[in-house]
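2024-03-11 09:14:02 DEBUG pipeline.ingest accepted 1 chain
2024-03-11 09:14:02 DEBUG pipeline.ingest length=230
2024-03-11 09:14:03 DEBUG pipeline.predict start
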Amino acid sequence: MNPKKILVIEDEEGLVLSLEDRLKTEGFEITSCSDGNSGETEALSGKYDLILLDIMLPEKDGYQICESIRKAELLVPILMLTARSTNLDQVLGLRIGADDYLPKPFDMQVLLAHVNALLRRASYNNKEHGVNIISFGHFTLDISKHILKKKNKAVPLNAQEYRLLEFLVKNPDRIFSRDELLDSVWDYDSVLTTRTVDVHIAWLRQKLEEKEIPRHIKTIRGYGYKFNLK
C-alpha cells in the first residue's frame, strides 16, 4: 500500500521538524512549505491526502489558502494548526472549509489521532459506491460524486457541510444528539464542541433555503436533530 501523502504548511521551523520526524515514523510521506504562496501552489496540485495548515504564514495566510483549496473543489481534509484559539478564529476556519482545528501547543499523540481520523473518514467517503442518488424536496444528493443539486444546479457546500448532510440523508427520521453527530461526522475526540454542530446545521439550512421554517432538518427540542426526506 502506498503511504499517505501529507502536506505541512507551517513557518515554525522547530515544529516542522517535529512533525516531519513523527509523521514519517508513522509511515506518512511528508512535504513541507514555510510560506503561504508555495504552500498554496503545492496544495492546489491535488496530490495530497491531507493538509496540515497554519493560519499565520508569510505572504498568504491559512484562511486564504483554505479558501483557494475549496474554490478549486478539492475535498482533501484540512487540519488547521494555530496559536489563535478563540471561537471566532475556529468558526471562521470551519466556515471556509477546514475540517478540523487544533490549537498550539498540542500533544503529538492528539495530532496523530486527528490525522488518522480525518484520513479514515476521507477513505470511506472516497470509496466507489456506484451511482447513489438520494432525492429530497427539490434537491438531489449524488453520493458517488459528492454533489448537492437543486433542479440540476449545483449547490456549493464546504467539505464538512457535505459530510454532515450526507450522514443525515443516509439516516432519515433518526434522532441524533449533538454529541452523537460530533462522534459520527467528526469521528474523534475533538476540541470542537456541540456548538459546532449547531453552526453547521444553520449553514446547511441556509443552503437548503430553510431559514424560516425548516422542512428537512428538524430540531428535536432538548435533544438534537433529525432529517426528513419528504
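2024-03-11 09:14:41 DEBUG pipeline.report Helices lie at 13-25, 36-43, 62-71, 87-95, 108-125, 159-170, 178-186, 194-207.
2024-03-11 09:14:41 DEBUG pipeline.predict end
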